[in-house]
Specification:
Length: 512
């Protein structure tokens, strides 16, 4: 194992080196949070594919293939479908908005009436996504070095927090490109063909396994439908995904690069299911389906290649973990802390004084933008590691996060992009009703039940439409600014979110 250990150690050292190099490029808020919005097609495609294909897509995807056969590809397949839909239909408009967070988009569209609540929901989602990704280090480092769970989480978490804090999105982009290459070589070019050959080829696999293992819907039609609702729609609205869209150099890069990444996800989904199916032939009595990946890597691959494939699994986890971490910190700093701080500053002074002081501060606030965001990544990273150590049920935590995200935010976000009659009051009501419906039904029926997301989305949609039609249309000036930004107005910083309770205009919407 010495050679395998050396491969892993060199890989981890390279991640830290990339973080240090990225720190030299992160000179402004735009550099630190969205890589200066300068990524071309190759880097954009690689980094987008890296973030959506994490430990769940690699280790979990192989596990689903072990349990259900080729239909186990559906979970990762729906992720790819969601990314394709985002890239083809929405990415160009999202990139033209020139914002940093999903909540800033809602502020821009609805006149500042939905941002802080959506920020809290998005923060909870990205936090849980970062936590579940960090927990996956325990499995990988246990296979690699035999380390206990806590030490594994700390080791993997510290490395990700270090390079993310140093260089922000530039460091994460550089490391994601390396991780994308390692993942492609390790999983698609090495493990996939070797696993199939070791299992005797496809003919032998079909002979050894039940027909259900090769049925397109062997995993169950209702399960596939739930995957679409949670993962495909989750790709459309997640801060971690949108923040990558913001890094694109232009509309074409966002659309074409994202389409390439989505197509790659479809291939990766099928590869994981085939590897899991081969593992079922080779090891029919494993204690857990999630053990299939580590077992086939350990037994089927020669020295050196084994270390590279384990590095591929590690890179899958690290890319998702770092992307979720910077998204969590960005939302916490820009959507929650900035608003709370401004509300506190408003107390005891008039609006005119506040407006004048804000104008003075805008001229000199750039100097601490990077420092503040860097501090939030470090703070959120420490919190993520602590929660990951304390948390046991990863599946329930991730399901809870996705259900609340999709149930609460999908309708207001897509409604804002597609329906001009949608109002801020409708968006707020939809977030509250959809989120509470999901949480209530998960409490009553169980976190893993399918019904919460079904009824949560339906309740959110009905509430959004009815409340929007019952309230005054969004102020014409707000919609004009929104259309101008969608049309590709010259780049400018998104306006700092106003405090809750201050009117945004003459519309009947809830004030800022």
């Amino acid at each position: 194992m010495a050679v395998d250990y050396a491969v892993i150690v060199l890989y981890l050292a390279g991640m830290l080196a990339m973080g240090w190099w990225g720190m030299r490029r992160a000179k402004s808020k735009s550099d630190f949070l969205v890589a200066g919005r300068r990524l071309g097609p190759a880097m954009y495609s690689g980094t987008m594919a890296a973030i959506v294909l994490g430990g769940a897509s690699t280790i979990g995807g192989v596990g689903l293939g072990y349990q259900y056969g080729l239909s186990g590809a559906w979970m990762v397949f729906t992720i790819g479908l969601g990314l394709l839909a985002l890239s083809i239909f929405f990415s160009a408009r999202i990139a033209r908005l020139r914002v940093y967070t999903v909540s800033e988009m809602l502020d821009l569209r609805y006149g500042g009436s939905a941002g802080i609540i959506s920020g809290i929901v998005m923060w909870a989602y990205t936090l849980m996504l970062a936590v579940t990704s960090t927990i996956a280090y325990a499995t990988i480092f246990d296979v690699l070095f035999g380390l206990d769970r806590t030490l594994s989480i700390v080791l993997g978490g510290v490395i990700v927090v270090a390079y993310s804090t140093l260089g922000g999105m530039w460091s994460i982009t550089l490391t994601d490109m390396v991780q994308f290459v390692v993942k492609t070589i390790g999983v698609l070019l090495l493990l996939l063909p070797i696993a199939v050959i070791r299992a005797g080829g496809f003919a032998e696999m079909r002979a050894q396994l039940p027909d259900d293992y090769f049925a397109p819907l062997g995993i169950g039609g209702q399960t596939v439908f739930t995957y679409v609702l949670i993962y495909s729609f989750g790709m459309l609205i997640g801060q971690d995904i949108w923040q990558r869209v913001f890094t694109a150099r232009g509309d074409k890069v966002a659309r074409l690069g994202g389409t390439a990444a989505g197509t790659y996800c479809l291939v990766y989904a099928l590869a994981g299911a085939v590897i899991g199916t081969a593992a079922k032939v080779l090891y029919p009595h494993l204690g857990s389906p999630d053990d299939a990946f580590a077992t086939i890597v350990r037994d089927a691959l020669p020295v050196g290649l084994r270390g590279l494939v384990l590095a591929a699994a590690l890179s899958a986890v690290m890319s998702t973990s770092s992307g979720a971490l910077i998204a969590c910190a960005t939302v916490a700093n820009n959507d929650i802390w900035a608003r709370v701080k401004r509300i506190a500053e408003l107390r005891g002074r008039g609006r005119d004084q506040e407006r004048n002081e804000a104008q003075d501060q805008d001229q000199g606030q750039e100097h601490d933008e990077v420092r503040g965001n860097r501090a939030f990544i470090l703070l959120m990273g420490v919190g993520v590691i602590a929660i990951a150590i304390a948390l046991n049920d990863v599946v329930e935590a991730l399901t809870l996060a996705y259900n609340v995200l999709v149930g609460g935010l999908l309708v207001p976000i897509l409604g804002g992009l597609l329906w001009k009659r949608g109002t801020g009051a409708g968006a707020l009501a939809a977030i509250a009703v959809g989120g509470l419906t999901v949480v209530g039904l998960m409490t009553a029926l169980g976190v893993l039940a399918n019904e919460p997301i079904y009824y949560g989305l339906l309740a959110s949609l009905l509430t959004y439409v009815l409340v929007s039609l019952a309230t005054k249309p969004t102020d014409a000036a707000v919609l004009a600014a929104w259309r101008e930004r969608l049309a590709g107005a010259p780049e400018q910083e998104a306006p700092e979110p106003p405090p809750v309770g201050v009117a945004a205009g003459t519309s009947g919407d809830t004030g800022r």
